[in-house]
Design a protein that fits this description.
The chain has 157 residues and is of the alpha+beta class. It has 3 helices and 5 strands. A 5-stranded antiparallel beta sheet has the order 1-2-3-5-4, with helices on one face.
């Protein structure tokens, strides 16, 4: 007997785009992801910060001239997953505290602080994907009588 991971009515929403490995491409990743999240009615923070950081890292550390990076954002059940794939599989990212006087190098510490989970997947060569997940707040239950069960919140005497 096969088990279903998600009930049949659970929507799977996804958005993907391939972008140039430039600062402009990283900004565009954040803007496009923000608009997609807004259209899905999902909270923008901290997801927009995670997209910005992962895209910036792909441009800064995963750039190979002439090879784009890919952003994929999707929701399955109550989890939002952000994936950024670049073509520098030989450079595995890791979060570590930089020297106090460093002007950069704190991005993955930010990802670690904001995401519920994050990690790196290898391949296919020469690619790697850095991903982050956020648990979404549960959607409020609504009944056919509305949020108050059909009763007015105002008490009249």
């Amino acid at each position: 007997m096969k088990q279903q991971i998600h009930p049949p009515h659970t929507p799977i929403r996804s958005f993907g785009v391939q972008l140039s490995p430039t600062p402009r491409g990283a900004r565009l990743a954040r803007l496009l992801a923000t608009e997609q999240l807004r259209s899905w009615g999902l909270p923008l923070d901290p997801a927009a910060h995670l997209v910005a950081e992962l895209a910036s890292n792909a441009v800064t550390h995963g750039r190979v001239p002439g090879r784009d990076f890919r952003l994929l954002v999707y929701v399955v059940g109550g989890t939002l997953r952000i994936e950024v794939t670049d073509t520098r599989g030989d450079r595995r990212p890791h979060a570590e505290l930089p020297p106090p006087d460093a002007e950069s190098g704190r991005g993955l510490l930010l990802v670690e602080a904001l995401a519920d989970r994050w990690g790196v997947m290898e391949g296919p060569a020469p690619r790697k994907t850095v991903w982050a997940e956020l648990e979404l707040p549960p959607e409020p239950e609504t009944s056919r009588f509305g949020a108050t069960g059909g009763l007015s919140q105002e008490t009249r005497r």
